[in-house]
């Protein structure tokens, strides 16, 4: 069975085609600048690459180019789209109504539209990708896999906000959590690596990248997470502020005359380590600048590390007993220095990093032999998780 996985952003689209007999990736690609001058598709098959630079006015045009690449005479990996059994879509927000991956129908799409109010940047693009596939290959089954689904096992004590209860009843204002597909993959893979049933493990999964979140996994299920109603809550991130006193927003809106939408844009796109450093949202740029003495770059990194440590410690207290901490995401997988700084001086909590083992970008145990809490690097694979869910639903 071959499964196509599509992840649509507002002006971009990532895809992978899996052969589920061995879960191998037949091809992968990226479409950039959809609806913008300079649209480009980059399609990769092993070490070979096809680049198409052509105007793509919308997601339907972009996905048509993806389909053309899949069956291309030289770079294609299938003879016909009939070989693709189903298409799995990453969808940001399913709220508390779509709590598991599901085959898409009109009712599902209506619920995805309903939660545009909480995912205004992502849900519309996810829907455009779904509807483009429906129009281009009618009758092909499409599956939605939600970023929020994995976190719906959280108890009310961790997902509720301390605001008048009527706002929860009327508007579903609560913590939903995101990166759920990644946290679920890392949880399952951690259990596999430790040769233990996930139900016997308490895990802290640490997904660090331009967008970052941490989840507390109790007996294999999500108990708490850092992101909230939207991906803005929680850690300091590349361009997102993370936690802050809500009065900061009302003060700036009164002082500067910002609208709610402008304030939202500032907190989501102009804050985080970019806002503090004034330099970049890329942590590699900040580390390089900090090494050269840039104090604001160093401050941004210190704030990021401090917030991660605060949540790791808090989740250890919530869980009571932690068996393993697993790092994932672009920073979590690739930055040995960040992992070390985040977990240094935690020997009293049973966490000891082995510097030699930590010098890796591969899947590995990086804790010392005498560390009570194991520490792992587990490169995430959200696309494979989406492909598995899609296959299981359409079989």
UniProtKB/TrEMBL annotation:
Cofactor(s), names only, from the UniProt record: Mg(2+); Mn(2+)
Name of the top EC class for this enzyme: transferase
Residues given in the record as Mg(2+) binding sites: 7, 382
Residue sites binding substrate per the record: 90
GO MF annotations in UniProt: acetate kinase activity; ATP binding; magnesium ion binding
Reactions performed catalytically: acetate + ATP = acetyl phosphate + ADP
GO BP, one annotated term: acetyl-CoA biosynthetic process
Entry superkingdom: Bacteria
GO cellular component: cytoplasm
Subcellular location: Cytoplasm
CDD domains assigned: ASKHA_NBD_AcK_PK
Keyword vocabulary terms for this entry: ATP-binding, Cytoplasm, Kinase, Magnesium, Metal-binding, Nucleotide-binding, Transferase
Subunit structure comment from the entry: Homodimer.
Protein name as it appears in the record: Acetate kinase
Gene behind the chain: ackA
